[in-house]
Amino acid sequence: MHIPDGFIDIPTSAAFAALAAVGVGASLKGAARSLDEKTAPLAGLTATFIFAVQMINFPVAAGTSGHLFGGVLAAVLVGPYVATLALTVVLLMQALLFADGGLTAAGLNIFNLSLVGVWVGYGIFLLVKKALPKNKSSISTAAAVAAFISVPAAVLGFVLQYAIGANSTFSVTAVLTGMMSAHIVIGAGEALITALSVTAVLASRPDLVYGYRGSKQQLEIRKA
Amino acid sequence: MVIVGLALSLLLAGGVSYYASSQPDGFEKAAGEIGFLDTAEESPLKDSPLAEYGVAGVENERLSGALAGLIGVAATAAISFAIFFFMRRFNRGKV
Questions:
Q1: Is the Cβ pair A65, B87 closer than 8 Å?
Q2: In this predicted structure, what is the pLDDT of residue A224?
Q3: Which of A119, A188, A211, B6 has CA atoms 20 to 30 A from the CA of A148?
Q4: Between residues 191 and 220 of chain A, which touch chain B (CB distance below 8 Å)?
Q5: Per-residue 3-state assignment (H helix, E strand, C coil) for A133-193
């Protein structure tokens, strides 16, 4: 879901670019606190892996494809602050190097994928995780559910942007239903790829998985 | 783990991507069906040497896509590792 230039007018794009900048700025602050020797390499790896997987469009219906958004995958692996930054790096690389996604639309895309996709998805992940027993498979399940929901959440971000400042005049209802139905199967693909990736990392290096911390160790000793 | 992950990323972007679906994605498809796809403007960078995940001047489509994928993975890795390592250092300096 990479919005090209032209769909949304410039004032609306600028407003969302400002919102995106505030969100990314806040994430820079939050991420600085959570990065250490162990998590910094995983953060870089997560951004790189999401870029690579986003190149793999999978077929979802006749004549249609989809690809990973990656917000929940990143948030579960490295935490939501770092995830926001990782997704933002990926989106900027795609727009600047590969002309995938518009330039004036960059703020719209960062808002939908790096902020809404990551934070709504991470919120759902925490809720589902809380309701399940404390073990590794619950983490994968919660990640899958959150990944599935993060896709329509990001799509809602676009529908909101369309309602505020589209350069075309189709009804918001038509845009909402058309966009949602196009993304249901993509959400299922998102859930599958996210669950597989999270399960693989949990199997090899559970200590690195941000969303798994606190499920295992009940007590944490922090230096003042 | 980092080595395995990077190798997998290179393999996906440089090899598997050739087999990826080339159909329009759900977003583009829906934009077309609803009717506003034609309001899209081409990116000002559409003539950049890597536009649309191909390397300008490389005739072989498979090679062109694979090279673009490898360059993309290398560039994303370089920038993201640099940012996160820099932030870690900055963080350590403050504590």
A1: no
A2: 62
A3: B6
A4: 201, 204-205, 208
A5: CCCHHHHHHHHHHHHHHHHHHHHHHHHHHHHHHECCCCCHHHHHHHHHHHHHHHHHHHHHH
